[in-house]
Structure to design on (956 residues):
């Protein structure tokens, strides 16, 4: 006598085993789950950096004397700059136009004399503004070096610098302002989106294309078993991808994890389920791999990249775009991951974000349960 | 009369919405009896697959009632699905799983108890001859083996009703025969009921009962013999008199008002007349020999054609072309010399050689995967040969593929037409693509519209046309630049028997005008339309010659008058025995 419960377990077991065999034999699944995280980590860990380093700075010194030599030395000693020397402004401007320089410091021949007198700043600064972000950072660094030198110079002259406010800056959570520290946690969201939404929706679409879905649907398989049969293997695969990413982040890139690993694991598991739910939703609409892939990239991957706060700060987006980011599940997970890595188990940040993800999961699952049925058209 | 295992009452199923709605099934009543093999016969697009899916509770009907094994398929799909076996058109196999893994999966899904598995696996593997291949990936099996594995998966739990959707399409004749044996064994040993759809009319004769489906309507359901019964006395074979071209005689007969169908069949013509019509015995004129019509037992195919045709129908328009001069006839226009094509480790074509003369209809006959399409693509200069020598219209394809291509017309397997352009726009496009402009272009487009009876369809979107009409349009498009050589890749696959007859009539007219035609097909009986052919299997040529030579080469005591299918099976099994 066959109990219905045993039949159901057997069907689910058959589905999961089949899916695992397919994952193990399909190089593209392995690539997305294990090779891609490594590639992305190396790209963002080593290649992409939002910090300005080795800024090519043209130092135009029209008249060499003690003060100008001393100031030039201050720029040379800074680890941010890569100095190039000029006697005239024209060739330096030419170099700036041709993008061989990122900025120019112009010390005119009356620099030392003007320094003694009251009046406007005696140095000229030109910054290439084509890359606005780079320009801002370059300007900031130049200012930092200039004020530092000015203060030292004033002290050497025996009087205080008469600036009204003395700014003392301190960066919390990422004292070295290392962009890698906040990029890498965000990458976990990207990788889990790829596995959960892109890979899953394409794998289901492939079953439609090859006609295997039709044969499967004609067996006594029930819809919850179909869904679970897809969710379980890809959940495990996604969590492996997550663990790999975290391991590389901690040991290869030395990103500190201030929060607890358990919290990170829990939040990742919830986000993985949301990503999988999106993948399943896409596969209900898209029954060929090309369409499924396009939808998954536009609806899940690109928003996770652009609108999650992974690279671009949500606070500085225009208000309507900010509203849209609330629809992007990755936004909540990126917030949690960055908090956990850089700050710690800050529950007032983590809990609302977890709640938002749980709500999204419930909504997606309700839609799937309504829309998924055993009819093939 | 047994119990009913499947009942459809007034079933209507539409697809799409608004103006694009198509009615796949239009009020179908059908009853399938227990313990019988019921064949669902009809041309492509008749609604066979829709009906199968409705019976498997995979689709909902828009109207009507469906009962499977006494269960309402609309209300309780899972109850239906736990008692049926269903094999979809592409067998539903996971190609990256092994034979055994596919069996395990479907055994799990169908709830076959573990205790019964080992014995059932052994039985099915033995029956399908797949026992030595249990570890092989399903994707690496031949078409015939895939089909048998798909069938084994559907049979795992001994379903009460077995639904097979076109199980034999594109599969070689040997595998087709084996599939029928397996199906009949299930019916005999287990009392299984089977509903099987097919586009092969000769398979209808193997069914206990046949349901004839046409344009979404059921034209009738009965024993095959009942369909052919009214044709008694109207079917004949005709020996082709010496010195008369069988193809020309067929064309002339078909043009007679009294004749419903004329078909080349080996050295004979098979002729079906309309009821109470005189036979045109004096067709060859007063001087010519009188035609000797010998009555034969009607077949299902004869009945099918006569049912679907009407006596008032005009015979299809034939392309008007200048006849070729007789002296050009013997010139070799295509030569393949030890041609090899490899894809990585896989050798698709293994050193084949043949020659084609001008004005010949030359066939490449073989099952799916035999290397026909690869050979074709090499001949059209679309794919370079890995080894060997190919020349077409006097050009070596290795150096002058472009010059050769300008003189050939190519009709690809899926017709490669633009579905969202009208018939006229497609013709203009292809004419322009072949470099025809202005007055010349409009002349050729007019020629195509008239000679292929496309004028009434000129403003229709190509995507809406039936497969037969699409085939006609693709045929016309391939002829826009008046090529000397025409390549037709599986032109009749999936096309209904009437459109297939029209197609061959047109092909014959082209050949008579001196155009060389190369055609691939997996319909064995179509080989009889060729002047000469090669039979291919697994990249090799098994036989070359005229249809008669090939058939007679395989004559043995069991088959005193072998058909092309008999010859094919004999050749393939001899090759397997040697291997």
């Amino acid at each position: 006598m066959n109990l219905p419960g045993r039949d159901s377990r057997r069907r689910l077991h058959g589905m999961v085993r089949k899916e695992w065999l397919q994952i193990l034999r399909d190089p593209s699944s392995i690539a997305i789950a294990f090779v891609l995280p490594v590639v992305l980590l190396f790209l963002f860990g080593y290649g992409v950096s939002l910090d300005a380093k080795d800024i090519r700075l043209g130092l135009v010194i029209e008249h060499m004397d003690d003060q100008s030599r001393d100031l030039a030395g201050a720029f040379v000693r800074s680890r941010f700059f890569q100095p190039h020397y000029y006697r005239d402004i024209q060739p330096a401007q030419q170099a700036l136009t041709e993008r061989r320089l990122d900025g120019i410091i112009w010390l005119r021949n009356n620099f030392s004399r003007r320094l003694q007198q009251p009046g406007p700043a005696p140095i000229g600064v030109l910054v290439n503004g084509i890359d606005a972000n780079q320009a801002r950072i370059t300007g900031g660094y130049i200012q930092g070096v200039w004020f530092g030198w000015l203060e030292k110079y004033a002290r050497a002259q025996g009087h205080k610098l008469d600036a009204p406010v003395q700014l003392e800056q301190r960066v919390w959570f990422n004292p070295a302002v290392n962009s890698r520290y906040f990029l890498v946690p965000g990458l976990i969201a990207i990788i889990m989106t790829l596995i959960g939404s892109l890979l899953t929706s394409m794998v289901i679409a492939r079953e439609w294309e090859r006609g295997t879905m039709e044969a499967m649907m004609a067996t006594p398989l029930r819809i919850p078993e179909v869904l679970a049969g897809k969710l379980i293997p890809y959940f495990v695969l996604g969590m492996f991808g997550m663990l790999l990413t975290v391991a590389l982040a901690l040991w290869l890139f030395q990103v500190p994890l201030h929060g607890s690993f358990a919290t990170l694991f829990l939040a990742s598991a919830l986000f993985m389920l949301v990503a999988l739910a999106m993948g399943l939703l896409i596969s209900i609409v898209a029954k060929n791999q090309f369409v499924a892939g396009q939808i998954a990239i536009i609806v899940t991957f690109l928003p996770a990249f652009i609108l999650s706060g992974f690279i671009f700060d949500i606070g500085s987006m225009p208000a309507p775009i900010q509203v849209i980011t609330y629809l992007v599940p990755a936004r909540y997970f990126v917030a949690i991951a960055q908090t956990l890595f850089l700050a710690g188990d800050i529950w007032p940040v983590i809990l609302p974000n977890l709640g938002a993800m749980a709500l999204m999961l419930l909504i997606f699952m309700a839609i799937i349960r309504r829309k998924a049925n055993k009819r093939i058209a | 009369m047994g119990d009913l295992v499947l009942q459809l009452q007034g079933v209507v199923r539409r697809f799409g919405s608004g103006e694009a709605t198509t009615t796949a099934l239009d009020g179908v009543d059908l009853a399938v009896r227990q313990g019988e093999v019921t064949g669902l016969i009809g041309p492509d697009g008749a609604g066979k697959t829709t009906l199968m899916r409705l019976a498997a509770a995979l689709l909902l009907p828009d109207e009507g009632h469906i009962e499977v094994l006494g269960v309402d398929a609309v209300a309780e799909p899972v109850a239906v699905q736990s008692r049926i076996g269903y094999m979809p058109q592409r067998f539903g196999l996971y190609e990256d799983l092994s034979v055994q893994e596919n069996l395990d999966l479907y055994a799990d899904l169908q709830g076959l108890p573990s205790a019964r598995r080992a014995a059932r696996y052994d039985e099915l593997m033995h029956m399908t001859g797949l026992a030595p291949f249990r570890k092989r990936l399903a994707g690496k099996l031949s078409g015939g083996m895939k089909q048998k594995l798909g069938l084994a998966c559907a049979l795992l739990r001994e379903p009460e009703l077995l639904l097979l959707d076109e199980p034999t399409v594109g599969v070689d004749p040997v595998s087709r025969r084996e599939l029928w044996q397996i199906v009949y064994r299930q019916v005999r040993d287990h009392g299984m009921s089977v509903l099987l759809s097919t586009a092969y009319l000769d398979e209808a004769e193997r069914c206990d009962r046949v349901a004839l489906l046409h344009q979404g309507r059921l034209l009738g359901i009965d024993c095959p013999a009942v369909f052919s019964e009214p044709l008694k006395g109207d079917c004949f074979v005709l020996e082709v008199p010496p010195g008369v071209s069988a193809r020309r005689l067929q064309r002339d007969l078909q043009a007679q008002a009294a004749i419903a169908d004329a078909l080349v069949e080996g050295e004979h013509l098979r002729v079906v007349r309309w009821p109470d019509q005189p036979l045109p015995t004096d067709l060859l004129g007063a001087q010519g020999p009188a035609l000797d019509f010998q009555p034969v037992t009607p077949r299902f195919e004869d009945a099918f054609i006569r049912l679907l045709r009407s006596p008032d129908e005009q015979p299809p328009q034939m392309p008007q072309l200048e006849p070729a001069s007789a002296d050009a006839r013997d010139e070799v226009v295509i030569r393949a010399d030890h041609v090899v094509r490899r894809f990585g480790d896989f050798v698709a074509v293994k050193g084949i050689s043949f020659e084609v003369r001008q004005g010949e209809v030359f066939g490449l006959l073989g099952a799916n995967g035999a290397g026909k399409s690869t050979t074709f693509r090499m001949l059209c200069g679309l794919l370079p040969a890995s080894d060997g020598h190919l020349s077409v219209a006097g050009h070596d394809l290795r150096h002058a593929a472009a010059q050769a291509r300008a003189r050939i017309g190519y009709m690809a397997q899926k017709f490669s037409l633009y579905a969202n352009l009208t018939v006229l726009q497609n013709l203009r496009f292809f004419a322009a693509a072949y470099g025809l402009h202005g007055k010349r272009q409009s002349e050729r487009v007019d020629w195509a519209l008239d000679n292929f009876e496309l004028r009434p369809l000129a403003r229709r979107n190509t995507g809406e046309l039936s497969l037969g009409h699409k085939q006609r349009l693709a045929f016309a498009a391939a002829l826009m630049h008046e090529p000397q050589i025409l390549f037709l890749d599986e032109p009749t696959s999936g096309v209904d028997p009437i459109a297939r007859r029209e197609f061959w009539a047109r092909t014959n007219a082209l050949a008579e005008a001196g155009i060389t035609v190369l055609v691939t097909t997996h319909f064995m009986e179509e080989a009889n339309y060729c002047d000469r052919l090669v039979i291919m299997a697994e990249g090799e040529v098994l036989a070359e010659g005229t249809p008669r030579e090939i058939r007679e080469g395989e004559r043995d005591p069991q088959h005193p008058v072998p058909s092309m299918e008999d010859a094919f099976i004999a050749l393939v099994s001899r090759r397997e025995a040697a291997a």
